[in-house]
Design brief:
homodimer; Rossmann fold
């Protein structure tokens, strides 16, 4: 299968590209290297020493004998080149990771809000419009987010996989209707993915595109079997206040003896998935495409849920590092339960990596190994959801 | 009240600007003149001889003594200038008409699809982000569309004004939830307005912006008391296949003896409103703003509904012109009923202009008066919803 991986240089995109290449697919990465540019803007680096994309691809070729292509292209800004690429390459599928992916970054400034909406919506729309224009039957697998659903909306019912059947009152009694789960985004980033959903629904209905939207939880972990082969293939690991996701941030904090930063009460329950399962889920989505004329296939890409303060307590117990309760810069419920349907991936054969297995490996192989690369002035979250909200000072001297 | 009218040179924006100025408000128009540029692109002109915006404003000043400001600015492309304008002008409200507004145009080509999404979503998001950045409490009144709801979705229940209370099944029994009416857009244009709705919901929740979204039906008619004062103030009248709305197109066809072009069976029921009521509805929305912290106020801006073939039959009977049934270039139900809630505007005091009163005036004052300006090669709709769909040849020689 010929696959274009949009955003294939990023945290999920790179290990996915290697995994699909390992499986024998003909993979080309399309990326504008924006994630590396944002590192420059934020004056922070991946905890792990990632190499330039050209070197990554060269090393993979040396080790595996497999060639991955690379096209430096901005999906939002360079539509014509993208359409030409589709016509020239005639891929069977595009896997679309090519979006700004951090909630705190998306709330950081007016520029960041605008970049997130403009880049993500235009990029996704260009992908869809380009496929229609090409006239080719190209499957789309897109990385969505659990954050489109919001938290606590559906009472004791588990969050469904995309669709919800509700009863609508009419003069003739209630009628049943299947709806896309109402969106309740908690940041401009999550908002951008709720806009994507509407784009997918329209292009699926009007043009019969075959689209799978993966509503992923918070990814943790760093390495996959392929990225572990050589240090030059290592995946990125973000720990900073804007891009670091909660569990990886805790791991790194534990490794350097920094207090584990819990925002608010830590009563937020979130869904998690290991990066090794992310790449397998994308594979399963590619292998189980919807048919032409089907609605958008939505899968919840999560394997377990944890309350943030429970995660912090677990790490604290394992490592002896204390927990620090900081002000919450987000506008969100202080406490929420979370019950997520995730039957489809289990039925498709996913065998998850659970926290209980992978956590110590992660501390040892990544956080402890690269802890000297950490910049402790970048750990505290500084982006606030509304002007004037409080943030914490740095908790540790460099 | 100081009001910026975004898109104030367009079909709805110009008469609204004059109406608000007449009421004594301090009005400035912000427009990139894109509607006039699209006329150049499509090689078609308004049936009515509209004057340049500078002349329009000068004549209004001469006749009324009132000054309307004008800023030539692209909302999607010139964010920094827009934010500066908000800080300098400190308006009490912005009325946002600044979007590409035609469904057929939005389906015309890949370029037009991309322009519609990019322009409309970025423009609307820039308005919201700019207001938040300014720190000012600026009310937003936005022109939405009835097309966000789709047709026939809610059975015998009338389409509500924005929100719908549904029952969600849970293990503990059904729970009631109020949701934004699920969106069912019929074109990329309508899709862009469903994206706007999600932007509004987020900025309302996160930043407590005060936003009113007006889901308007198909506008007919041309003149308001202000635009009628002098021919140099005349409003635009679009009759072409891309921008002409169905009733105005019929009026013009009747005037020149062109067959009345009905697509498909004409069984589509649509909602209508006269341009005179549009401007009054915007006034009422400005005068009845939501409070900070309220959800987005959604009003259905329609006054009556008609089935397309019934409208054609009415015009045919009035004028003797025959009806032509052409292939339908849209992907839509051949027949639909339409029952729309519109209580809020009636409660706020709207006294509608009905078709039965205004139709003959419109034929006489506009269609017959300017019929020699019609280009009969521009009447037939040529934009199709999917490649390969059939369209009609021209029905009349120039």
């Amino acid at each position: 299968m010929k696959v274009l991986v949009l955003g294939g240089d990023g945290f999920c995109g790179w290990p996915t590209s290697l995994h699909l290449s390992e499986l024998g697919h003909d993979v080309s990465i399309v990326d504008n290297l924006s994630r590396r540019e944002i590192d420059l803007e934020l004056e922070v680096e991946s905890l792990t020493p990632i190499r330039p994309i050209g070197e990554r691809i060269r090393v993979w070729k040396e080790l595996s004998g497999r060639q991955i292509g690379f096209v430096h292209l901005d999906l939002a800004e360079e539509y014509d080149r993208f359409e030409s690429l589709l016509r020239a390459e005639r891929p069977d599928a595009v896997v679309h990771f090519g979006e700004q992916r951090a909630a705190p970054y998306s709330m950081r400034s007016t520029i960041a809000k605008r970049y997130t909406i403009d880049n993500n919506v235009r990029g996704t729309h260009n992908v869809l419009a380009g496929i229609v224009a090409s006239g080719l039957d190209i499957q789309v697998v897109h990385l969505g987010t659990m954050g489109v659903y919001g938290y606590g909306w559906s009472g004791s019912a588990p969050i469904p996989e995309g669709y919800l059947t509700v009863k609508v009152p009419t003069p003739d009694g209630d009628i049943e209707r299947e709806i896309l789960h109402p969106s309740n985004p908690g940041s401009v980033y999550h908002l951008s993915k709720t806009l994507d959903q509407l784009l997918f629904a329209f292009y699926c209905a009007n043009d019969q595109l075959r689209i799978t939207d993966l509503h992923q939880g918070i990814v943790w972990g760093t390495q996959t079997p392929q990225t572990s082969l050589d240090e030059r293939l290592i995946n990125r690991f973000d720990y900073d206040g804007d891009y670091g996701t909660v569990l990886n941030r805790f791991l790194m904090q534990a490794a350097i003896g920094h207090p584990l930063t819990v925002h608010g009460t830590g009563g937020q329950t979130r869904a998690f998935i290991h990066i090794r399962d992310t790449v397998r889920c994308v594979q399963l989505a590619l292998e189980n495409a919807p048919d032409r004329g089907d609605k958008v296939m939505v899968l919840n890409q999560v394997t377990e849920t944890y309350r943030v303060r429970d995660l912090a307590a677990l790490l604290s117990k394992l490592t002896g590092v204390e927990v620090a309760n900081l002000p919450n810069p987000r506008r969100e419920a202080a406490e929420n339960d979370l019950n997520v349907s995730r039957d489809q991936f289990l039925e498709l054969g996913l065998d998850p990596t659970y926290l209980s297995e992978g956590l110590l490996e992660e501390v040892r192989e990544i956080a402890l190994r690269y802890k000297d690369r950490a910049d402790t002035t970048k750990i505290i979250a500084r982006s606030v959801w509304r002007k004037g909200m409080e943030t914490s000072p740095d908790l540790m001297r460099s």
